[in-house]
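Per reviewer request, we include the raw input and output of the structure prediction for the construct analysed in the revised manuscript.
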Amino acid sequence: MLLEFLDKVAKEPANKMTAESVAMVMAPNLFLVSSGSRNRPQAVDRELQLAKATSKITLLLIANRSLLWMVNKIYVVHLVLQWSSVTCFKK
């Protein structure tokens, strides 16, 4: 549901944020990343890299939300047949 909401926010005409902007804002709330001390320049660079990566992941999740967690119809039919063969579910 969260991904659907974020997709709607990104597509809302009154909203001036793009999907990339929504992903950038939401990524730190979805992924906890830390490179250690903020006093070292390498740590700051690493945190920037992690922020970019999590933002891209969030954007991919938003963009592909309709495909995520989809189950192929063949698997559903197989599960129904398997469950219907269990004796406790037979009439």
